[in-house]
Design goal:
478 residues; alpha+beta; six-stranded mixed beta sheet; 22% strand; globular
Length: 478
């Protein structure tokens, strides 16, 4: 008979040794593999880098000799592989689905500090530097660590299903196919744990309660068949850049940064606003420390609550690439034929991304200035997600676990970025509870230079997750 009590402080001691002796050395080897996500590495299927990462993680899992745990590498034709792990329940009728990913963002090698490198693991001041360690290589190790901590104490646990995918940084286009392929083996989870999110600080357990969606696309304006001397053409031929400026005024208020596309201008639920107030009260102005403002640059508001709402619940527009414009040193006195601007519009959690994409395209292409050729090609549309209300048992366990491990109650955080598949899982398993958490906190800089994994934080987060799994196993109803 499995024990129903679980000593979370004992689990933390177990996990501290587990990470120091086994997980951190293996994550360090994983960091050395430049397995960029398919969107950034068109040769991923043939250069063997993704395969190296999958093999490393799989072999490490097997070396941990977790009783009753099975592991498979599953490959669907034309898609990135996944690692799928299962473990039968012990004294429980529940099922939990756990998720992480192993693909990486581009390295940005030249931007890393001296002495650091995206593909060289460096342990310094309790932080493990290197690309992908925190986003999201650690997730495999956290899943196994939580299970081992539970088994050591003989506690009950639900049937465990773990998916580690290899295309998250490219939009998780393969994940739904795998979830459908494995549906009968996954079952109907009553709890979904995602280990690919952020934290507001390293002082408590953080629960992600919302994620914005995203619409990406390229806006092209063409005014000439061939480039012409600017002294001869300017004043007669409208500049393609000027036309783009006029078009952007249709979708963004340049003075406030507010996106004025009607479909995304939805009212924010009051309880979500209150959630952001509570988060702002915990973090104060300190959360701005993670943004490397240059010189005297100021944030868009002096009110932390407004900044939180801007990042987590309002639409925003970023300009992430440009074509048709030469470098400053190469630019001559020429009126160019066209300009292409890459747009990334973050979409509120409660707005369908496809609706936003359709309206954005319509607004930009309708009645173009000077009848110039205008085309907006949508390259991606990913809806956001908002968590269901936490069940009483789950909220109590998260609070108890965070207090026991960190000495502070947990906190909730909205994320401005996307985890594309969360909406899909919410639709597939509408009665499931969600624990979306992670270790990407201040200055950890996922996707940027000097990314690091906060070692003490990952140990504590894993301990709290283990406690949640034990409590979940004690439920008697699905």
């Amino acid at each position: 008979m499995a024990a129903q009590t679980f000593d979370i402080k004992k689990a933390l001691t177990t996990l501290s040794s587990f990470y120091d002796k086994s997980a951190i050395p293996s994550i360090s080897k994983y960091i050395e593999i430049p397995n960029q996500s398919p969107a950034f590495d068109p040769e991923w299927a043939t250069n063997g880098l993704m395969e190296q990462a999958i093999t490393l993680l799989s072999e490490w899992v097997k070396s941990e000799n977790v009783p009753g745990l099975s592991l498979e590498i599953i490959r669907l034709e034309g898609r990135t592989p996944i690692i799928f792990m299962t473990k039968d329940a012990v004294n429980s009728n529940q099922t939990v689905l756990m998720y992480g990913h192993l693909d990486k963002q581009p390295p940005l090698t030249e931007a890393w500090e001296q002495g650091l490198h995206p593909y060289k693991a460096v342990l310094r001041d309790g932080k493990l530097y290197g690309r992908g360690g925190a986003d999201d290589g650690y997730s495999t190790y956290a899943c196994i660590g939580a299970i081992k901590a539970i088994l050591e104490q003989g506690a009950a646990h639900a049937a465990i299903r773990i998916i580690i995918e290899a295309r998250e940084e490219s939009g998780s286009q393969d994940l739904e196919a795998y979830v459908n392929h494995l549906k009968s083996r996954i079952g109907v989870p009553s709890l979904i744990v995602c280990l690919d999110s952020g934290c507001g600080n390293y002082e408590q357990f953080w629960l992600t309660t919302s994620l914005r969606g995203a619409v990406m696309g390229a806006l092209n304006v063409k005014v000439l068949k061939e480039a012409v001397h600017s002294g001869h053409a300017s004043g007669i031929v409208p500049s393609s850049f000027r036309v783009i400026r006029k078009l952007l005024e249709r979708i963004e208020d340049v003075d406030t940064g507010k996106v004025i596309v009607p479909v995304v201008m939805k009212e924010i639920p009051e309880f979500r606003i209150q959630e952001q107030r509570e988060t702002a009260a915990i973090l104060g102005d300190h959360f701005l420390d993670e943004y490397p403002f240059f010189g005297n640059t100021q944030p868009m508001s002096t009110d932390p609550v407004e900044l939180m709402l801007n990042r987590n619940w309002r639409a925003t527009l970023s300009y992430t690439g440009i074509d048709g414009v030469p470098s400053v040193s190469a630019g001559g006195n020429v009126l160019r034929t066209d300009t292409t601007l890459k747009l990334s519009m973050r979409v509120p959690p409660h707005v369908p991304a496809n609706d936003a994409a359709a309206e954005l395209k319509s607004i930009l292409e309708k009645d173009p200035p000077f009848k110039a050729h205008v085309e907006f090609n949508v390259s991606g549309a990913m809806s956001g997600w908002a968590s269901p209300k936490l069940a009483d048992w789950l909220e109590q366990e998260i609070s108890t676990g965070s207090t026991a491990v960190f000495g502070k109650k947990h906190a909730c955080l909205g994320e401005g970025g996307s985890i594309p598949f969360m909406g899909m899982l919410g639709e597939l398993f509408p009665k499931a509870q969600f624990v979306i958490t992670g270790i990407l906190g201040p200055a950890s800089n996922a996707h940027g230079p000097n990314e690091f994994l906060h070692v003490d934080m990952v140990k504590k987060v894993t301990a709290v997750v283990a406690g949640i799994l034990v409590k979940h196993a004690q439920l008697t109803e699905n």
